[in-house]
Each structure stands twice: as structure tokens, then as C-alpha cells.
Design goal:
The protein is flat, with a radius of gyration of 26 Å. 49% of the residues lie in helices and 2% in strands. Helix 14 runs parallel beside helix 17 and helix 17 crosses helix 19. It starts with a helix and ends in a 5-residue tail after the last helix. The N terminus is likely disordered. It is mainly alpha-helical. The chain is built from 19 helices and two strands. It has a two-stranded antiparallel sheet. The chain binds zinc ion (ZN) (2 copies). One zinc ion (ZN) binds next to helix 8. The site of one zinc ion has 8 residues, from loops.
């Protein structure tokens, strides 16, 4: 299997970044603000479609109108005709975050409007190179409700990162909760381009707020977290390589894989290990076949190959057991199972769970209880702060309205149901409510 591991590391640089636009597109002053995209060069980088939305909001025009009045009329005739009439919410609009011809034309127009030429970095090829963009992007945008709420509370600008548009990423790397793709209130999916001046973070259909407090009780399995963390690390590597040198090409990966597969019984061995049908593997490496697997399939494949065969690797039982017991006895902290596994040199908890199911279950339960306890502590702190503010306003003879109380607390705090409840309780205590 090391051959396959090696193959992944030789995804090579195909060519340099697309060159800046021809001179005639560069204007001394831009028609629109040359907003800097958020988190450029990191995996939290803004998406191209998210940037277009923000460009609209910043100019106080609905992003729909910006697209219809400023962008589409400037596309060359062929691209204009190829743009669907209802471009705003469709899967087609989402594909602008990929690598198609339309993306190139839109970036050119945006370059003209803003005099910026780094929009390429807001699209998927800046992470995954020349892999076919088919199947990589979601049909409609997803989001992490806890990220939205956190950003609002911290006064951080709200935006739509590229990672929310990618199919393979299913949980938030920060909050470890599932990304959402339907509004909590009206159940509708979100349009790619917002139809009105609704603020970012509001549903494109009903206008309700799409954020939510972190809910660490949500059950996301340790296995899913490990898998997603692994993907996250690989994407980081791919992005770093792209940023350093240019568009990556996957041709060497398939070439090396083909060589491995030609070894005796290579196809059936790999098919067995990965669960991918051998006829599909034939298609992967056939240069005459235009078929290209999704990034998700390639990564799953590498993930499986990376895990050492159980019979090949002698597990150091004593060391693992000691580490698990130490985690259970730790007075100060309750480390997550994936953390214990990493400390032992495993990339995830699979092996540990296989060999020590009971201990692993206890470690995971303890970590969960710890997270819940932390959450309860945070809530208690919020209650106490609200009580103090209400009490102090009351003593000064000022009615502690929601607005007045909010003024003394972190922005957006009073939006959460828990804070409102605490506020009502404090009002009751002071005799304003019964
Ligand atoms: Zn999040
Ligand atoms: Zn809605």
C-alpha cells in the first residue's frame, strides 16, 4: 500500500497561476469597491459566490441586482447567452465556485469592476487542482449555525467560506457540528445569490436568522470527526502546495496507481481493501477514459490505504491501555478519544475502538459529559452577568429593557433564548414581571 501513499504525495504542479488580466481590463479606479476577500490563502477563505453577495450588500443593492445589472451584461456574448435566466439560485450559480469556462468569464468581469485579480483563490481549483469539479460542489450553500452566531457575537463580519460549498466537508471544523443546508424556520434551501437586501446570515426565503448557539449535545460520532479532521489536514496540504507553486495536477497520482494495480492481483487487492469496484478502478487509471473520480472517493481510498492492516501491525496493547486509563483518571481534563489516539501516534481512534471498545466508550462518554459541563458553566456565567446589569440599572432608576441590558454585554448576546430567559428571570426578581 505504500505505493499508493507515495502516489498521493506526488500530485504535481502542472503550471503556474493564471496570469493577470490583459491591460485593457485594468482601470485606474474601480467601478465597485475593491473589497478584499476574507481569509484569503487559508481554508476559511471566502467563496467566489459569497464574495459577489458581499459586494452587493456593501453597495446596498440586492446581490441579484448586482449580478443582473453589473456582471451579466459585461460577459462576452457567448457566455451571456450561456447564462441561465434564473441564474441566481441554481446549481449553475454554485458551479461558479468551480473551474468552468463561466467561472473564468465571471472572474474577468469582476476583475474589471473591482480591479482585483486574485479571485482564482476563491474557487475550488486553488485547493484541489485539476481534478474534475463535477460532484465536488454542493447544490446549494450549507452553513454552520454556530459560526454565524459566534461571528455575530464577536462583531466579526459575516461571510460565506468556500468550505461551506464543498460536498466532502459535512461538519464544521471549528464546532464539530453538522453543516446545515435547510433553513430551521421555513425548511427551504438557500439561494446562491441573495435576492434582496437581507443581511448576510438571514434566510434567502423567509429572512429569519440562520445562526444558532453551539449545541455540543449534537451527536457526531468520533469516527466522523476523525475522518473529517483527516480530510481537513489533506486539504491544507493541497492548498499549501497550490499556493506555493500553482495549479496541481493529478495525472501522476493516477499514473503511479496504475503501476501499482498492474502488480499481481493489484486490482482485486485494492478493490477488497477499499470497497471500490474493480471495474471502477480500471476506469480511474485508463488514460483513454474521461471518467475522473470525485475528490471524496479519492480521499476515502487514501484514507483506507493509509490505515495499516491489523495483522501487519502489532498493537502495543500495554501502552494503549495505559493511555486510555490515564485519560479516564485525568482530574483536570477529559480529552476526546481522537486526541488520545493521536497522542499514541494513531491518526484516528479506529484501532483503539477495535481493540479496547469498553475503555473507548468510557473515554468518549466522559469527554461528552465534560463538554456539557463546560457549556453549563458558560450559561451560568451569562445568567450572572445579566442579573448584575439588570440589578445595577434598576438601582439607578432605569428600566432594564432588553436594549439597555444589551448595551453592557457582548454584541448579539441577548439574541439567544437562554439570555432572554435569564433576563425575564432577573426582571421578575426586581418585581417588573410576575
Ligand atoms: Zn462552526
Ligand atoms: Zn427560511
Amino acid at each position: 500500500m505504500s505505493e499508493v501513499q507515495q502516489a498521493l504525495t506526488v500530485v504535481q504542479i502542472r503550471n503556474s497561476w493564471p496570469t493577470p488580466l490583459p491591460e485593457e481590463y485594468v482601470l485606474p479606479r474601480s467601478r465597485l469597491y475593491d473589497l478584499a476577500p476574507y481569509e484569503m490563502g487559508t481554508l476559511w477563505c471566502e467563496s467566489l459566490t459569497g464574495y459577489i453577495n458581499r459586494l452587493g450588500w456593501t453597495h446596498h443593492v440586492p446581490p441579484h441586482a448586482l449580478v443582473a445589472q453589473e456582471i451579466v451584461p459585461r460577459l462576452d456574448e457567448h457566455q451571456r447567452l450561456a447564462t441561465p435566466v434564473g441564474v441566481f439560485g441554481t446549481k449553475w450559480a454554485m458551479s461558479l465556485n468551480g473551474a468552468g469556462v463561466a467561472t473564468k468569464s465571471w472572474m474577468k468581469v469582476l476583475g474589471y469592476l473591482t480591479t482585483r485579480f486574485d479571485f482564482y483563490l476563491l474557487t475550488l481549483p486553488s485547493w484541489v487542482g485539476d481534478l474534475s469539479p463535477r460532484w465536488q460542489l454542493r447544490e446549494t450553500p450549507a452553513w454552520c449555525p454556530a459560526c454565524l452566531t459566534d461571528w455575530q457575537t464577536m462583531g466579526h463580519p459575516l461571510y460565506q467560506p468556500l468550505l461551506w460549498m464543498i460536498r466532502i466537508i459535512t461538519i464544521c471544523p471549528r464546532h464539530k457540528i453538522p453543516l446545515i443546508n435547510h433553513c430551521f424556520h421555513c425548511q427551504k434551501p438557500q439561494l446562491v445569490f441573495a435576492p434582496s437586501k437581507k443581511r448576510p446570515g438571514e434566510c434567502t426565503s423567509c429572512g429569519q436568522w440562520l445562526g444558532k448557539e453551539t449545541n455540543s449535545d449534537q451527536d457526531v460520532s468520533e469516527e466522523l470527526v476523525s475522518w473529517q479532521e483527516w480530510i481537513w489536514e489533506r486539504l491544507k496540504e493541497l492548498q499549501a502546495a497550490s499556493l506555493a507553486a500553482g495549479v496541481l495536477t493529478w495525472e501522476p497520482f493516477f499514473r503511479h496507481l496504475a503501476r501499482y494495480l498492474q502488480e499481481q492481483k493489484g486490482y482485486s487487492r485494492l478493490a477488497q481493501a477499499t470497497g471500490i469496484d474493480r471495474t471502477v478502478l480500471y476506469r480511474w487509471v485508463d488514460p483513454a477514459d474521461a471518467y475522473s473520480p470525485a475528490l471524496e472517493t479519492i480521499l476515502k481510498f487514501c484514507y483506507v490505504c493509509r490505515v495499516p492492516h491489523r495483522q501487519n501491525r502489532r498493537l502495543d496493547r500495554e501502552r494503549c491501555q495505559l493511555a486510555l486509563h490515564a485519560a479516564l483518571d485525568d482530574k483536570n481534563e477529559s480529552p476526546a478519544l481522537s486526541h488520545v489516539a493521536q497522542q499514541l501516534g494513531y491518526e484516528d481512534a479506529r484501532q483503539l475502538m477495535y481493540h479496547f471498545p469498553e475503555e473507548c466508550k468510557l473515554v468518549a462518554q466522559r469527554a461528552k459529559a465534560y463538554r456539557q459541563q463546560r457549556k453549563a458553566q458558560r450559561l451560568a456565567q451569562v445568567r450572572e452577568n445579566i442579573q448584575q446589569v439588570v440589578c445595577s440599572l434598576h438601582t439607578q432608576g432605569i428600566y432594564p429593557s432588553l436594549h439597555k441590558v444589551q448595551a453592557f454585554l457582548p454584541r448579539g448576546l441577548m439574541k439567544s433564548p437562554e439570555a432572554r430567559e435569564a433576563w425575564h428571570d432577573a426582571l421578575r426578581e426586581q418585581g417588573y414581571e410576575s
